[in-house]
């Protein structure tokens, strides 16, 4: 998984997440946020942010994280909700300013960026899951062989270090744990989707 991140154009007035909330509340309907695709976890995190703080913030969908990020770098959409990996190099180069990673712990890739809770905005954690699935009915022995191989690879020091450098939080959980996580994510985000009246495109 990789945590999602809230970034802004470096020239944007808000320097913290709390300042962002205050600014948007003071100017309803004025500001917009870029997101990589309708229904993606960055998009849903943005909608949850709006719902939690009753913000009139315009959602601007793009077809990729790169396009959303470029729009924010260019100042067209001053705020971006994306996964951390596609935003990371731009944050490091000063093209974006990260306000918070939406995670319970700071990212080793950007240790200076606070978590959303540290930034004063709890209950906004969201990440972009990356996993491997197999067709229903795949024999247990094959599933276990895959799981074991993946766990070994992810546990290797060089692989773990590389994934963390890229902004990922490597975890090799069991099929049961991963399935439970997927079900929990569906339950968590279903209400956000309903309340935001999001439709598949």
Radius of gyration: 18 Å
Q: What is the CATH architecture term of the domain at 2-128? A: 3-Layer(aba) Sandwich
Largest sheet: 6 strands, mixed
CATH fold title of the domain at 2-128: D-Maltodextrin-Binding Protein, domain 2
Which structural class do you get from the secondary structure elements?
Answer: alpha/beta
Q: Which stretches are low in confidence, meaning pLDDT under 50 for 5 or more residues running?
A: none
| Rough outline | globular
Number of helices: 7
Give the CATH level 1 class of the domain at 2-128: Alpha Beta
Order of helices and strands: EHEHEHEHEEHHH
Proportion of β residues?
5-15%
Helical residues, percent? 40-55%
Please state the average pLDDT score. 95
CATH superfamily of the domain at 2-128: Periplasmic binding protein-like II
Number of extended strands: 6
Report the end-to-end length measured between terminal Cα atoms: 25 Å
């Amino acid at each position: 998984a990789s945590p999602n991140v809230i970034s802004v154009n470096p020239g944007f007035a808000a320097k913290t997440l709390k300042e962002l909330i205050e600014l948007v509340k003071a100017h309803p309907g004025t500001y917009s946020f870029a997101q990589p695709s309708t229904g993606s976890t960055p998009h849903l995190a943005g909608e949850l942010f709006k719902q939690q703080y009753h913000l009139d913030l315009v959602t601007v969908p793009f077809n990729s994280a790169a396009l959303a990020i470029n729009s924010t770098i260019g100042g067209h959409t001053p705020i971006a909700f994306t996964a951390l990996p596609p935003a990371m190099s731009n944050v490091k180069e000063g093209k974006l300013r990260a306000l918070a990673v939406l995670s319970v712990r700071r990212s080793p890739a950007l240790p200076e960026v606070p978590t959303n809770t540290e930034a004063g905005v709890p209950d906004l954690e969201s990440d972009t899951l990356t996993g491997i699935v197999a067709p229903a009915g795949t024999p247990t022995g094959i599933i276990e062989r895959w799981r074991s191989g993946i766990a070994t690879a992810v546990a290797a020091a060089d692989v773990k270090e590389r994934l963390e450098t890229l902004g990922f939080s490597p975890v090799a959980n069991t099929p049961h744990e991963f399935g439970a996580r997927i079900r929990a994510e569906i339950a968590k985000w279903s209400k956000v989707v309903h309340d935001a009246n999001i439709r598949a495109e």
